[in-house]
Amino acid sequence: MDNKNFETYFDCGCSKIRATAFNKNNNQNYFCNESKFFLNYLEIDITYEFQKIIASLENNTKEYLNDINLMIDSPKMLSIEISLFQKLDGLKLKKEHIQFLIQDAKQQILRNYASQNILHITIKNYKIDGLNFEYLPNNLECNLISLDILFICLPKNIVEFYKNKFSELGISVNRVICTSYAKSINYKNNLSLIDKILFIDIGFNKTSIICYDNNRINFFHTFPIGSNNITKDLSKVLDIDLVSAEKLKLYFVEDKNLSKEKNISLDLIQQIIFARIEEILELCDKSKKLNSNFDQADSFRMMLMGDGSKILNNEHQNILSVPHRMDLLEEGVEAICQSGRKLTEGLNKQEVIIIPRKQTNLGFFEKFFHLFR
User: Fold this and answer.
1) Distance separating alpha carbons of residues 174 and 156, to the nearest angstrom
2) What is the DSSP string of 66-81?
3) DSSP reduced 3-state for 280
4) How many CB atoms lie within 10 A of CB 298?
5) Radius of gyration, alpha carbons of the chain
6) How far apart are CA 262 and CA 247, in angstroms?
7) What is the DSSP string of 41-68?
8) How far does the chain reach from its first CA to its final CA, in angstroms?
9) pLDDT at 213 over 70
10) Beta pairing, strands 6-12 & 67-72
11) Is the CB of residue 232 less than 8 Å from the CB of residue 39?
12) What pTM did the predictor assign?
């Protein structure tokens, strides 16, 4: 039995590592830590960075850390959608029918995407005798049931890399979570957002798009362009090193002296930065048009998050030609890790919770799915 008072979440990004230890009995009691910013993930000693954060958390919590929940974002994140149906011929719909379809879909993903690790299984829609339902209705007789299921996956080699690194430190990984997906759910619920919402998470090496319609996830997509591309653009056009380019990107408004020292025009810096930002937002809009079933005239509210979006304050947003309302979400270490925590607590009713294999005292389906709570 676990007698520990704290549970810990590690968010491993491409430019920074963050972690928070939450008191299970007191939501106001938590401890955060994060690594320094790094331009090249391959050049850092990740084990050393883990050790520093772990030592800090253990010192604050007065507990030995032996297990964590791992949050990851990666340009290699993959979303797969699948639809399955079952004829019931007037039978009363039971949870076993849903479990059978989910298990069937899961096995198809495992067979056809053997190199992928399933992080999340979300039921986008229940269609019962031609009618759409956000959640499964009770005590309903029907002839045909179909499910639209979204799988969010990550290559197994990435998952194993992190698990092995933590294992070397005597720490096991309970669950692996997609950070962008978890954050979108948490912020949507915290802000009571409904209607058509487009979350855009601009990270270091990737941008993730999560679309919701009336509280229901519509699609999840990731493409390998992020704020590091802006740094590279500045470096190439201005003929400066990447470290100087990163500083210009982050402080091109606040630190005017930096551009003067480099004898570079602020207008030129701004043009380079916003050319790439507009490209990212245009790709997000194209993804929305390709993946959603809505009328293109529909108005979406765009919520920007991630370190890469911090460059966009209210003044800069007026420069961009964006067809939708756009809001910038401020987020810190605690908010990011709290998103993972709330997801593992099962607060998202659309998600099928995957139970770790070490819990072997459950029934066959219950080992995989806690869907009906």
Assistant:
1) 15
2) -EEEEEE--TT-EEEE
3) helix
4) 12
5) 22
6) 11
7) GGGS-HHHHHHHHHHHHHHHHTS---EE
8) 23
9) yes
10) parallel
11) no
12) 0.89
Element (H, E) at 33: strand 30-34
Q: Which residue has tokens 């800069």?
A: 316
Of 188, 180, 176, 210, nearest in space to 354 by CA: 176
User: CA 167 to CA 181: how far, in whole Å?
Assistant: 25
Across 182-206, b (16+ Cβ under 10 Å) vs e yields bbbbbbbeeeebeebbbbbbbbbbb
Domains and CATH numbers, the chain: 6-73+158-179 (3.30.420.40), 78-155+344-352 (3.30.1490.110), 191-331 (3.30.420.40)
Strand partners, 222: 208
Non-local CB neighbours of 287 within 8 Å, separated by 6+ positions = 209, 219, 221, 223
User: How far, in Å, are 36, 65, 212, 214 from residue 194 at the CA level?
Assistant: 36, 38, 8, 5
Half-sphere exposure of 349 (CA within 13 A, CB side): 12
3-class SS at 133?
strand
Distance CA 302, CA 325 (A): 6
Among 279, 187, 289, smallest CA distance to 229 is for 279
- With beta carbons less than 8 A apart as the criterion, state whether 15 and 228 touch: yes
Decide if 46 contacts 106 (C-beta within 8 A). no
The burial class, CB within 10 Å (0-12 / 13-18 / 19+), for 370 is middle
Rounded Cα distance between 19 and 34, Å, is 6
SS3 9: strand
The pairing of beta strand 131-133 with beta strand 116-128? antiparallel
Whole-angstrom distance, CA of residue 5 vs CA of residue 22: 8
| 243-262 tens-digit pLDDT | 888 888 877 656 556 555 56
The string of pLDDT tens digits covering residues 73-110 is: 999 999 999 999 999 999 998 889 999 999 999 999 99
The rounded distance, in Å, linking the Cα atoms of 203 and 320 is 19
DSSP 251-273: HTTT-HHHHHHTT--HHHHHHHH
